[in-house]
Specification:
Layout: H1 4-25, H2 30-46, H3 48-64, H4 69-75, H5 79-94, E1 102-107, E2 113-120, E3 123-128, H6 133-144, E4 148-152, H7 158-172, E5 179-181, H8 188-193, E6 202-206, H9 209-218, E7 231-235, H10 241-253, E8 262-268, H11 272-286, E9 289-294, E10 310-316, H12 319-329, E11 334-338, H13 342-351, E12 356-359, E13 378-380, E14 388-390, E15 396-403
Helix pairs in contact: 2-5, 2-7, 3-7, 5-6, 10-11, 12-13
C-alpha cells in the first residue's frame, strides 16, 4: 500500500467503522459494557500463548536493531505485565460508569430545567509507540466510556499489537467494530487519522516528543497530549535527608524510561555541601550519571528528558528560585518538593505550574492506577479539558438536556 490515496482510503474506512460503532455504544448500559470488558479479559487470557510469542518476536527484532534499553523494556510484555494488563481490564469494568452522570441541574425562572450530563466523545484516535499494554488499556477505557477507538501502534510492537487486536475484537464479538486497529506503518496513516474531521473527535498521542509534535503539527482534530516528562525533585534545606534520598532513588531508578521519572534534582544552596556528597555516593552505587551545575548554567541542557539512568543536578538559592527554574525548564508534568517546612511546601504547591505537584512524595505516582482511576489513557500537560492522568471522566464531554412544557422564549 504505497500510494497515499490508498492509505487515506484505508484510514477513513476504519474511522467510518468506528463512527458507526460509536452510535451503537452510546446505547449500551453499564452492565452491557462491563460484560463486554469481561469477555475481552477472558479472550486475552485464552490467547496468552500467541500474544507472548508475538511479543517475543518483536523484542528479538528490537534487540537485533540495537534499540535503546529503555525502549526494549517498554516493549517487553513480561508475565507480570501481562497479568497486570488483564487485571486492568477488569479493574476498569469494576469502576463506576461516568456516562450519564448528572453534573449540574438548574431550574430557570422561564420554567425550563437544564441538566448537564456526561456523554462519550464518540471516536477517539490513539497513536502510541512501543508499549503494547497501551493497546489494551486504551480499548478498555474507551469501551467503558462508550467511545469507539482507532488505534495505531509503533513498528516495534506491530506483531504484539496484531495479536492483541485479534484477541480484543474476538472478545467483543458483535461490538468488534468499536476497536479499530491500523496495522500499516506508513506515517501518512497517522496524518490521515488526525485530519479525519467529522469522523475522529479527539486524538491522543502516547509516545516520544517527536511523535507528539508531528501529530500536533498535522492535526485538524483536537489533541490531548504531553510533549515530554522533565520532572524535578527539589530538596529544600529543611528536608529530611534520608527521606529526600529515598524519594530521589524511587523517582529516578525505579523505572527510568517512563515519563514520570525524575530528570532533574534541585538542591538548596545551604544544603548542597551536605547533601550532594550523599547524592554522588548514591549515583555511583546505582549507576546514575550526573550532570551538575548551578541554576541556569548554560553548560547543562536543563530541558533534556533522559529516560535513562542519567539526570541533571542543580544548586538553587531557595524555594522561589526552584519554582522559577521548574516553570522555565520543566515540561509541566510532575514536580516534587522535599521539605518539612509547611509554608515553603504551600508556596511550591501553589506556584509550580505543573499538572501534578508533590510534597514529600515521589513523582512516580503520576499514574491513573495510583490515582484510583484504573488504567489510564495517558498524561496530559494541557490546560483545556484534561490535565494530569486521564482516566474515565477525562474520556467524556458533556451536553445540556433542557426540558419543559411547551415553553417559548419571551
Amino acid at each position: 500500500m504505497g500510494m497515499s490515496e490508498d492509505v487515506k482510503a484505508y484510514v477513513r474506512a476504519r474511522a467510518q467503522r468506528a463512527r458507526a460503532a460509536a452510535g451503537e455504544l452510546v446505547r449500551l448500559s453499564a452492565c452491557e459494557k462491563n460484560a463486554a470488558l469481561e469477555r475481552v479479559a477472558a479472550a486475552l487470557e485464552s490467547r496468552r500463548g500467541e500474544i507472548a510469542a508475538a511479543n517475543a518476536c518483536d523484542v528479538a527484532q528490537a534487540k537485533a536493531a540495537a534499540l535503546a534499553e529503555a525502549l526494549v523494556d517498554r516493549l517487553t510484555l513480561t508475565e507480570s505485565r501481562f497479568d497486570a494488563m488483564v487485571a486492568g481490564v477488569r479493574t476498569v469494568a469494576a469502576l463506576p460508569d461516568p456516562v450519564g452522570e448528572t453534573l449540574d441541574v438548574r431550574e430557570r425562572p422561564s420554567g425550563i430545567t437544564i441538566r448537564k450530563v456526561r456523554v462519550p466523545f464518540g471516536v477517539v484516535a490513539v497513536v502510541f509507540e512501543s508499549r503494547p499494554n497501551v493497546f489494551v488499556d486504551t480499548a478498555a477505557l474507551c469501551l467503558k466510556t462508550g467511545n469507539a477507538v482507532v488505534l495505531r501502534g509503533g513498528k516495534e510492537a506491530i506483531e504484539t499489537n496484531r495479536a492483541l487486536a485479534a484477541a480484543v475484537r474476538d472478545g467483543l464479538g458483535d461490538l468488534a467494530e468499536a476497536v479499530q486497529f491500523i496495522d500499516i506503518l506508513d506515517h501518512a496513516a497517522v496524518t490521515e487519522l488526525v485530519r479525519a474531521v467529522g469522523l475522529v473527535d479527539v486524538a491522543i498521542p502516547r509516545g516520544g516528543e517527536r511523535l507528539i509534535r508531528a501529530m500536533c503539527e498535522a492535526a485538524l482534530v483536537p489533541v490531548l497530549k504531553h510533549y515530554k516528562g522533565v520532572c524535578h525533585v527539589y530538596v529544600d534545606d529543611k528536608a529530611d535527608l534520608a527521606m529526600a534520598l529515598s524519594i530521589l532513588d524511587n523517582a529516578k531508578t525505579q523505572r527510568p524510561g517512563v515519563c514520570n521519572a525524575a530528570e532533574c534534582l534541585l538542591v538548596h544552596e545551604r544544603l548542597a555541601p551536605i547533601f550532594l556528597p550523599m547524592v554522588r555516593a548514591w549515583a555511583a552505587d546505582k549507576g546514575v550519571l550526573l550532570h551538575e551545575g548551578t541554576d541556569g548554567d548554560a553548560a547543562v541542557d536543563w530541558e533534556r528528558e533522559f529516560l535513562a539512568l542519567e539526570m541533571n543536578v542543580g544548586i538553587v538559592r531557595d524555594v522561589r528560585a526552584a519554582v522559577a527554574h521548574i516553570n522555565r525548564y520543566g515540561s509541566h508534568h510532575s514536580d516534587c518538593i522535599v521539605t518539612n517546612d509547611a509554608a515553603r511546601a504551600r508556596e511550591f504547591l501553589r506556584d509550580v505550574d505543573s499538572a501534578c505537584v508533590y510534597h514529600n512524595v515521589s513523582t512516580r505516582f503520576t499514574d491513573g492506577g495510583e490515582f484510583g482511576m484504573g488504567a489510564e489513557i495517558g498524561i496530559s500537560t494541557d490546560k483545556l479539558h484534561a490535565r494530569g492522568p486521564m482516566g474515565l471522566e477525562e474520556l467524556t464531554t458533556y451536553k445540556y438536556l433542557v426540558t419543559g412544557d411547551g415553553i417559548v422564549r419571551k
